[in-house]
Amino acid sequence: MNPFDGSNPREALEQVAALLRCSPTSAEVASYLDKHDQLRHLREDFLVPKIADLPPSDLTLVDGSAECIYLVGNSLGLQPKKARKYLEEELDKWAKTGVHGHTEGSRPWAWAENNIEELMAKVVGAKAEEVALMNGLTVNLHLLMLSFYKPTAARHKILLEHKAFPSDHYAVESQIRLRGFDPQQSMLLVSPRQGEHTLRTEDILETIEKEGDAVAVVMLSGVQYYTGQLFDMAAIAEAGHRKGCYVGFDCAHAAGNVELKLHDWGVDFACWCSYKYLNSGAGGLAGAFIHEKHRDDIRPANRGELYAMLSYILRV
């Protein structure tokens, strides 16, 4: 039995529980899913920390030599076993060739991002020419917002979820202030209904329909970091475009975690990091996406805008 054929996660758990005649929260269900996971062999490609190597804790009731149960890949992915090999190859090249490593060898440093643009494009469902690998997540978000957020007196709002990742919230607020608007008036926050923890898609779409004429940019997460909710990005993009809004997503918790089709969904822009579910390690290059349809109508931020942004950020 493959519980994931045509099922959403909840339905899959209920199917397995029915098969095993136990509760969906039973350890038997978890064991069954582990045993039948077609990708379980990939676990062997990563280094899982040993309990004894983690910060001090009471180890009297556990085996310190055992691998920990790692549930924080949303903050930092596990180290791939091949990472050390690749790093040592580059350190060896640096030692032997010095500055020539920028332009020589199988992976010249000067064009390092070119080695993985096509691979990254596949991860986010884009064309290679729509993807750039550079900077960090929030820097890329600022650069994208500088290009896409062009507020007017009539259309100046940015729609985002109430509990957006803090750096996203601050970036949006900064962009609004940078353009001379008041976040109290221009930040349109959507919240779950009373007593609920996730946003209903119909509520997001209704907000876009109701407020869309005043919204310049819809800027949501792909996967909400606080609740784990996967947003219906295709439906949100379609609704936003119907009202004349640009639609972008922070895919930091989505890239490498869920299937993305940024090009096919018509998303205008997106950004993400690579150290979470893509396991690049702390400081890994971040990514940015701009749909090819904007090749002629969206231009990178000019030097004056970049200077103004940096001055504002440093000032606050």
UniProtKB/TrEMBL annotation:
Keyword terms of this UniProt record: Hydrolase, Pyridine nucleotide biosynthesis, Pyridoxal phosphate
Annotated InterPro entries: Aminotrans_V_dom (IPR000192), Kynureninase (IPR010111), PyrdxlP-dep_Trfase (IPR015424), PyrdxlP-dep_Trfase_major (IPR015421)
Any GO BP: L-tryptophan catabolic process to kynurenine
Superkingdom assignment: Eukaryota
A cellular component annotation (GO) from this entry: cytoplasm
A molecular-function term among this protein's GO annotations: kynureninase activity
Domain Aminotransferase class V: 70-304
UniProt xrefs under Pfam families: Aminotran_5
SUPFAM superfamilies xrefs: PLP-dependent transferases
Name this protein carries in UniProt: Abnormal fluorescence under UV illumination
Lineage: Eukaryota, Metazoa, Chordata, Craniata, Vertebrata
Gene designation: kynu
